[in-house]
Structure formats: structure tokens, C-alpha cells
Automatic annotation (TrEMBL):
Pfam families: Pribosyltran. One of its GO terms (cellular component) is cytoplasm. SUPFAM superfamilies: PRTase-like (SSF53271). Its main location: cytoplasm. The keyword Glycosyltransferase applies. Keywords: Cytoplasm, Glycosyltransferase, Purine salvage, Transferase. Pathway: Purine metabolism; AMP biosynthesis via salvage pathway; AMP from adenine: step 1/1. It is found in: Cytoplasm. It catalyses: AMP + diphosphate = 5-phospho-alpha-D-ribose 1-diphosphate + adenine. One of its GO terms (molecular function) is adenine phosphoribosyltransferase activity. InterPro entries: PRTase-like, PRTase_dom, UPRTase/APRTase. This is adenine phosphoribosyltransferase. Residues 42-156 form the Phosphoribosyltransferase domain.
Length: 172
């Protein structure tokens, strides 16, 4: 599908925040998005991991398309478990705000092959933290997927280590 009209609506020249909701409003477009995010993922994931919050929408749709389970990586403080039972990564995101991402390690098995999904990869910080959480839980990351993935110094390790699938990639 040609997403140019949607990319124009999203304000791709802005920094940090993008409105991807136009992609969700039309059933045919959302179905195509789900299919296109799966395209080229040849590594046969056993689970899709989505990053809070829009990675939940996209990740659960991709998991449904691939007929595999879905595991959420949550923002810090949202899971109903004691801190010592969680895996946590503290990060500073594109907005320079400090936050954390958490995962309960029992959500994944050592045999799991994860596709990690988010809406946008701009600095790479959030995706690197999520892939680290998945690997710390004992699973492997076989690919990452997003609507847009910027290529820059922050995202370079992701492109070098994983298969990165995006509807659009390119320089910042």
C-alpha cells in the first residue's frame, strides 16, 4: 500500500511526536498496515512484543496477523508486581524525559523468538531498552518493526544487530 498521504498527515517533518491515528481509522488501511508490518519478517517469531502505548495497538494487530501471542512492555510503575519481580530499564527518550520500561520475565520463555513492535523508532533508545528487556528475560529478538525507523547514530546498533522492518526508513 502507498502510505504517502498518511505520512503527510502525520507531520513527518516534526520531531518527537507523530499522529499515526489516521492509519487506524480506516479498516482497509489498518488491515494493510498490519500485513505490511509483517512483510519480510522471515524469522518466524513465536511472540510479538509491543512497547507501551502505540506498540500495543500495532503489536497486537501484528500478533493476530501472525497467529502468535502478544507480550506488552509497559511504562514503569504500571505492572501489578513488586519491583524485585520485574525487569526494568531506565531511559531518557527523545523528549529528554526520564522514564522506565518494564517487563515481567515470566511473560517470555527461553525458546521464544520475539518480534518487537513500536510505532516509531527515532532515537533508538526505547527500542534498545525493549530488546534488552526481552533478551534479559531469556528470549531472543529475531526482528523489530515500526511504521518509521530513522537511521542515525542512536539507531545504528539496532540496524546492525537486528532485522529492522519499517514502512519507511531514512535519515532524520
Amino acid at each position: 500500500m502507498d502510505y504517502e498521504e498518511y505520512f503527510e498527515q502525520m507531520g513527518t517533518d516534526t520531531a518527537g511526536r507523530y499522529d499515526i491515528s489516521p492509519l487506524f481509522g480506516d479498516a482497509d488501511t489498518f488491515a494493510a498496515l498490519r500485513t505490511d508490518l509483517c512483510a519480510g519478517v522471515d524469522s518466524e517469531p513465536t511472540v510479538v512484543v509491543g512497547i507501551d502505548a502505540l506498540g500495543f495497538v500495532l503489536g497486537s494487530a501484528v500478533a493476530t496477523e501472525m497467529s502468535v501471542g502478544f507480550v506488552p512492555v509497559r511504562q514503569g510503575g504500571k505492572l501489578p508486581y513488586p519491583d524485585d519481580e520485574l525487569l526494568r530499564r531506565d531511559i531518557t527518550d527523545y523528549s529528554e524525559d526520564a522514564k522506565s520500561l518494564e517487563l515481567h520475565p515470566d511473560e517470555l520463555d527461553v525458546d521464544d523468538r520475539a518480534l518487537v513492535v513500536d510505532d516509531w523508532i527515532e532515537t533508538g533508545t526505547q527500542m534498545r531498552a525493549a530488546t534488552d528487556l526481552v533478551e534479559s528475560a531469556g528470549a531472543s529478538v529475531v526482528a523489530v518493526a515500526a511504521i518509521r525507523a530513522h537511521r542515525n547514530e542512536g539507531t545504528k546498533p539496532l540496524f546492525e544487530r537486528y532485522d529492522v522492518h519499517a514502512l519507511r526508513t531514512g535519515a532524520e
